[in-house]
Structure formats: structure tokens, C-alpha cells
């Protein structure tokens, strides 16, 4: 193992330009993939923000006794999809209408009787914020005898659903394309370093080194380049994010960077590509010579 | 040690490199392989080191049948062979000592035996004082000595030399040849391909002469026939 590490380090030191180039190629491929990841992360987050507004409202019949409403609210809160239930009384509804619908304020001021019904406003847990779940909850709410009408903005929720699945598919495809390009670029740089050391490999074979032994330093070197490339890519991503945030942060206050887990995944991805890329390149070379 | 029995080699492009070649190099023997370029000398050496496989016939080296050798057994064969080339094939970024030690390291020798074995073999080839020199700092003859030291460091019973003096001036060539004779005197079988007929004639060693892939002359057979 010490020999493997020494050989890998020696190779870094012996061909600093080539090593730096291949680390740069790995870093750049991971950087573009990472940038794409950041964009898609924030886009998804924005969509989730929209989804938070998915809400089911049950309008109650006038004169429903408070105890029935309280019991029903407890019942509804126990639905598996439900995050919280808010009771909005008739008065509170009027008050809200006065504040929110400023242009009708005068009309509301002159009212003798409050026309607005009381309601239960139900917000759903994040994983249930889809048209299907909203409809299921709405159907169950409609079963309560004192519920007059249930609304959940069906069309809007359905459109949001559609947008989310479209976004997921597009992100997956483009993400895969980025990953494939990164793997291809990294594979080529590793092949170059294998060719560059063809003489060394030939001598190793000549004196009777096993293929496993020949692969060792290359695989270790590939892995090391992957780690370094991954870390450099993350630093570039952080800088790009910082610059973007500084110029556009006011318009987009909810922008966020990768979490620790995401960052570890990027480095792990680089390392794995480095390891497998080397394994494949050296293996192919050994079969050819 | 090395036995060719009716060996032919046809390459993928149809070129016939060897045709019905038979000879037997015994333990401790020294033999020259001679012939013009393209006569098949390098093919014989490639078959011995399992870089090529025979198309027909049987090649046996140190008890192993090259035709049936599994890929994973090739390293085992090569550890019983030392190989030296005309162009030395040293790693320029390693010192003489490191080039020799490399052959031990990559064959899994224990680290504590490597420095001792390396220095012993460098002393044997007369290069102990140049252990720390890089190939670029050495003469052709010295570089070939390093290559020979590398070939010998695993104590192989057979040494293959492909035109080892081809790139050297006469004096260096003679001293390298003397070194190979000394190695042979120590019990190592040596098979040396060469163009240098003067060298061949000046010694009484066995000569295997190839012409267009055929063994046209074997001095051992001539001697026994006489």
C-alpha cells in the first residue's frame, strides 16, 4: 500500500502539468455539473415554495355549533395528509377580506350582515401537496354534514403537479447528460495519463508484475484526482454562487447553496469517476498491449 | 530450459514469421540467435517471453508450455526470465538504483530486502558507484549495464538479450558481452539475438541462424554431426 501511494504521488510530481490538466478537466466537468445542480436545486425549491400554497378550504354552513367544528377540526388534523387545520370564523373572514381586498373595503364597511361563511383552512404535509391528495382530502371533508363547499384550486394544483413532474423529468435527463459528458471527459484525461506511462507499464509487465499490481497506482491516482477535482469544483461553485447572489440576491432572496450531504455527493461522484475511469482505461490498455 | 519443437508463427496479417523451428537450449548454455532483420529473431524471443503465442508446435520455457499458458500465469513465467533490449528501456526519471529496485517492487518483493539486492546486482554489473545517477547522466554502455542489472535482480535462470550491443560502440559492446559471459558462467542460460557476426565467430558459443523464419543453421547440430 505504501508503494502504491508513493507511486501515485511520484506520478503527480513527475508530470505536474498533465496531472494539473487532468485535475482541471475533472474539476471543470464537475463544476458545470455542479452549477447545473445548483440551478436545478433552486428551481425545485422555488416550485416547492409554490406547492406550500396548496391548501384545502372547507366552507361551513352558517350556524354550525362551535363544538362540532372543534371536534371536526381534531378529526381532520388526524388525517395522514394534513399538516395543520385553522378555523377561520365568519368575523375573522370579514376582517381578512377588509384588509386584503382593499378595493372592496367600502362595500364591506356598509354591510349590515356578514355574507362570508366560516371555514376550516387545511394545509397539507409537503409529500401530499399534489392534486390527487388534495382531491382525496376534499372528498373526505365534503362528507361532514356541516360542510357546505370545499375548494382547493383544482386547476391550479393540477397545473403545478404537471409542472413539477415535467421539471423532474427535464432535470433528470439534463443532469444525466451532464454526468455522462463529465464521465467522458474525465475518462479521456485518464487515458492520456495511461498512454503517457505506457513505457512504465511495458516494463512492469516485462519484469513480471501482475495486472492487479499494475492497475493499483493508476486507480489510486485516478481516485486522488477525483477527490481533488471534486473539491476544486465545489470551491468554483461556491464562488459562482457568491457572485450570482451578490448581483441578483435581492430579486431572489431564497437562493441557497448545497448542503453538506450534497457537497459530499459531488466529491464522491468525482472520486468514483476517477477510480472507475482509471480501472477501465488501464484495463483496456493492458488488454491491447 | 528453452525448447522449441516444430514451432511456426503466422501473424494476423498472414506474415509467416517462423516456420518449423526446433532447438533446445539447455540449462547454463549460451546461444546466439543470428540472421538478417526480419529473419525471426525477435519472434523467437517474443515467444519465449510469452508476448506472442506459437501458431503451431510447442514452446517450453522453464517447464511452462507457452501455447497453453493462462494470462494470469504469464507474470510467473516472466519472473523466471531477464530481458535486455537494444534501447535499454530504462525509466529516465528514476536513478539506476530505482530502476533496478522497480523490478523488485512491482513483483511484490519484501521492502526490507530491496536495497540490499539492488546494490548487490549493481555491484555485479560494475555500477555501484553510479547507483544515484539518472540514465541521462550515463553512457550507453552504463545504461545497458543498468538494464542488465534490472533483468538479473530477480535471479532468473534465463536471460534473453535482443541486440544488447546494437546501440553501443565497439569497446562498450565488448564489455557488455563480457558481462553476459560472466553471467552465463554463473549458471544463467543466455539467448542473445545479434547482428554482430564477428562477435559470434570470436567465441565458441552455439549459433542458431535464422533465415526467413527458418532455422537454417545450428552450430550444436553441426558439431554433433561431425
Textual characterization of the structure:
The complex is a heterodimer of chains A (289) and B (226). By secondary structure, chain A is of the alpha+beta class. In chain A, 72% of the residues lie in helices and 8% in strands. Chain A has ten helices and four strands, in the order H-H-E-H-E-H-H-E-H-E-H-H-H-H. Chain A has a four-stranded antiparallel sheet with strand order 2-3-1-4. Chain A is elongated and about 100 Å long. Chain B has a domain at 89-155. In chain B, the strands form two sheets. In chain B, strands 6-7-8-3-9-10 form a six-stranded mixed sheet, with helices on both faces. In chain B, helix 3 crosses helix 4 (114-124) and helix 4 crosses helix 5 (140-152). The model of chain B has no long low-confidence stretch (mean pLDDT 92). Chains A and B meet through helix 1, helix 8 and helix 9 of A and helix 2 and helix 3 of B.
The number of domains of chain A: 2
Question: Structural class of the secondary elements of chain B?
Answer: alpha/beta
Radius of gyration of chain A: 30 Å
Strand content of chain B: 25-35%
Largest sheet geometry of chain B:
6 strands, mixed
Strand order of the largest sheet of chain A: 2-3-1-4
**Poorly predicted sequence stretches spanning 5 or more consecutive residues of chain A:** none
Characterize the overall form of chain A: elongated
Amino acid at each position: 500500500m505504501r508503494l502504491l501511494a508513493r507511486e501515485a504521488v511520484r506520478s503527480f510530481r513527475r508530470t505536474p502539468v498533465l496531472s494539473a490538466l487532468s485535475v482541471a478537466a475533472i474539476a471543470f466537468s464537475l463544476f458545470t455539473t455542479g452549477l447545473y445542480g445548483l440551478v436545478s436545486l433552486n428551481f425545485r425549491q422555488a416550485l416547492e415554495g409554490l406547492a406550500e400554497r396548496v391548501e384545502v378550504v372547507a366552507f361551513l354552513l352558517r350556524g354550525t355549533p362551535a363544538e362540532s367544528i372543534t371536534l371536526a377540526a381534531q378529526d381532520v388534523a388526524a388525517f395522514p395528509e394534513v399538516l395543520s387545520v385553522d378555523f377561520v370564523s365568519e368575523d375573522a373572514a370579514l376582517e381578512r377580506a377588509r384588509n386584503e381586498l382593499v378595493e372592496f373595503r367600502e362595500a364591506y364597511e356598509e354591510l349590515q350582515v356578514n355574507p362570508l361563511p366560516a371555514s376550516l383552512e387545511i394545509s397539507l404535509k409537503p409529500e401530499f401537496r399534489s392534486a390527487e391528495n388534495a382531491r382525496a382530502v376534499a372528498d373526505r371533508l365534503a362528507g361532514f354534514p356541516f360542510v357546505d363547499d370545499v375548494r382547493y384550486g383544482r386547476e391550479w394544483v393540477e397545473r403545478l403537479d404537471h409542472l413539477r413532474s415535467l421539471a423532474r423529468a427535464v432535470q433528470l435527463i439534463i443532469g444525466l447528460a451532464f454526468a455522462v459528458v463529465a464521465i467522458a471527459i474525465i475518462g479521456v484525461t485518464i487515458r492520456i495519463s495511461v498512454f503517457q506511462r505506457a513505457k512504465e507499464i511495458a516494463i512492469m509487465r516485462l519484469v513480471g508484475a501482475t495486472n492487479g499490481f499494475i492497475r493499483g497506482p493508476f486507480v489510486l491516482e485516478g481516485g486522488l484526482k477525483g477527490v481533488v477535482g471534486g473539491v476544486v469544483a465545489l470551491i468554483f461553485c461556491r464562488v459562482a454562487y457568491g457572485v450570482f447572489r451578490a448581483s441578483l440576491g435581492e430579486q431572489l432572496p431564497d437562493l441557497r447553496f448545497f448542503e453538506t450531504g450534497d457537497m459530499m455527493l459531488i466529491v464522491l461522484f468525482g472520486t468514483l469517476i476517477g477510480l472507475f475511469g482509471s480501472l477501465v482505461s488501464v484495463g483496456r490498455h493492458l488488454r491491447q498491449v | 530450459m528453452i525448447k522449441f519443437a516444430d514451432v511456426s508463427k503466422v501473424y494476423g496479417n498472414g506474415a509467416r514469421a517462423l516456420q518449423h523451428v526446433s532447438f533446445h537450449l539447455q540449462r547454463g548454455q549460451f546461444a546466439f540467435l543470428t540472421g538478417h532483420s526480419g529473419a525471426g529473431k525477435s519472434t523467437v524471443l517474443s515467444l519465449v517471453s510469452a508476448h506472442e503465442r506459437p501458431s503451431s508446435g510447442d514452446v517450453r520455457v522453464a517447464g511452462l508450455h507457452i501455447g497453453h499458458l493462462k494470462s494470469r500465469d504469464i507474470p510467473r513465467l516472466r519472473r523466471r526470465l531477464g530481458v535486455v533490449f537494444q534501447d535499454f528501456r530504462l525509466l529516465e526519471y528514476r536513478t539506476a538504483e530505482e530502476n533496478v529496485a522497480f523490478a523488485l517492487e512491482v513483483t511484490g518483493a519484501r521492502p526490507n530486502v530491496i536495497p540490499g539486492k539492488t546494490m548487490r546486482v549493481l555491484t555485479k554489473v560494475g555500477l555501484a558507484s553510479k547507483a544515484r545517477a539518472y540514465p541521462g547522466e550515463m553512457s550507453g554502455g552504463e545504461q545497458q549495464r543498468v538494464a542488465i542489472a534490472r533483468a538479473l535482480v530477480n535471479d532468473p535462470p534465463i536471460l534473453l538479450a535482443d541486440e544488447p550491443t546494437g546501440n553501443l560502440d565497439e569497446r562498450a559492446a565488448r564489455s557488455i558481452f563480457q558481462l553476459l559471459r560472466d553471467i552465463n558462467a554463473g549458471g544463467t542460460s543466455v539467448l542473445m539475438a545479434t547482428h554482430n557476426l564477428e562477435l559470434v565467430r570470436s567465441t565458441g558459443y552455439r549459433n542458431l541462424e535464422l533465415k526467413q523464419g527458418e532455422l537454417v543453421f545450428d552450430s550444436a547440430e553441426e558439431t554433433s554431426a561431425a
